[in-house]
Design a protein that fits this description.
homodimer, 202 residues, mainly alpha, disordered C terminus, DNA-binding
Chain lengths: 202, 202
DNA sequence: GTGTTCCGCTACGTTAGCGTAGTGTTGAGT
DNA sequence: ACTCAACACTACGCTAACGTAGCGGAACAC
């Protein structure tokens, strides 16, 4: 036809919305202020996102993007790389700032709740992958409760950053990983060969 | 002199405020609605709490009250009683509903942040007491990093309920406690961390 | 009892943000 | 070159909530 939606307007509006969500929270995001800060006209924003919720969802989706899954050869190495790298940076940055008000909003808005559920599942996937690899290598018992795996590995990290709002220093992360790995290894009374280079026990 | 502040008005307003905080979140609490729902006149509410923040703080303080410290003779027994009893009821009730928006508000309001810090410390005390008793009994190594103790014990529980918004079923709690206790028992005592961290993480 | 102060009520002006309409300009498709 | 939609801008009426003021009545201290 005539003229496509301005990609620049979209980009600017999303960036402003991102900042404002961090500053004021998901619940207090106003189109008016997004317009003022981004330089994009209010009417244009309404044209791109007819409902406030859709702007929020696009913004949040943009923030939670990449997830990588390290593969170092050992569970401990994988988890350490994962948490001291991406997760720490993430939780100390935009993700860490948006997370609390997103959780809050989820308890009140089904649409955001679904979004958060999706994000949660996405974020737990790398851990499950690393754990499965460890199980194949014999580093962990073969049958573990997924909820417990996620809870004991991810729980102490996220808890400290999100709930307690404290920094994730290296020694904390390492100790928590020690506890989780040791505890999970011993979890089932199933006879488990200690972590020794598997010399083909057949 | 003449007439003391009505205790009933105060009580009614706080109850309504509590409900509304759960429904709408700390950030969206309006005096107008507290007045409408409680039956207490708006002017009266302003007389009792000149600033919105003080009403919020009083309300939250009222919600987070009692903390008991079980003493069953073993760390495992103590923790199980603690988490499957009070903590589970708490997190499934008002506390669990208020917590997320309180965390969110804390990132934006220093006064609420201080309140939440105080609450956090109060809530970690029972665990520290139970752990210290266990250390005296020889169930745990004598020198443990407090942050790690709290993180690995409380983290998986609070994480599941607050961040993942999933129920705290008994088997989950028990398995997480198994992991934490086993892991902490095997944790090698680490040299005391200096007060001022050399490498700041965050 | 008397007096003072609090309570509930109604009303007020003010503000922020909503979502929409209208106008002129600009820029990408054809 | 032409066209048509998207753009920025201004303005509008509407609503929710703000915080304050003034009123009569009621309760508690004395």
């Amino acid at each position: 036809m005539a003229r496509p939606r301005s990609e620049e307007a979209r980009r600017k509006a999303l960036a402003a919305a991102n900042d404002l969500i961090i500053e004021r929270g998901v619940g207090n995001l106003t189109i008016e202020e997004v317009a003022a800060r981004s330089g994009v006209a209010k009417t244009t924003i309404y044209r791109h996102w007819p409902e406030r919720a859709s702007l929020i969802i696009d913004t949040v989706r943009m923030t939670f993007e990449h997830v990588s899954t390290p593969d170092t050869g050992s569970l401990r190495g994988d988890l350490e790389a994962f948490f001291l790298g991406m997760v720490r940076a993430d939780l100390s940055g935009k993700v860490g700032h948006i997370m609390p008000c997103l959780i809050d909003a989820a308890s009140r808005d089904p649409e955001i709740e679904m979004l958060l559920d999706r994000i949660s599942i996405e974020r737990q996937q790398p851990i499950l992958t690393m754990v499965e690899r460890a199980q194949r290598r014999g580093e962990l018992p073969p049958s573990l409760d997924t909820r417990v795996v996620i809870g004991t590995i991810l729980g102490p990290i996220v808890f400290r950053k999100i709930v307690w709002r404290q920094p994730l220093d290296t020694s904390y992360v390492q100790s928590c990983l020690d506890v989780a790995i040791t505890g999970l290894s011993a979890l089932r009374p199933i006879p488990v060969v200690p972590v020794v280079p598997a010399v083909a026990a057949d």
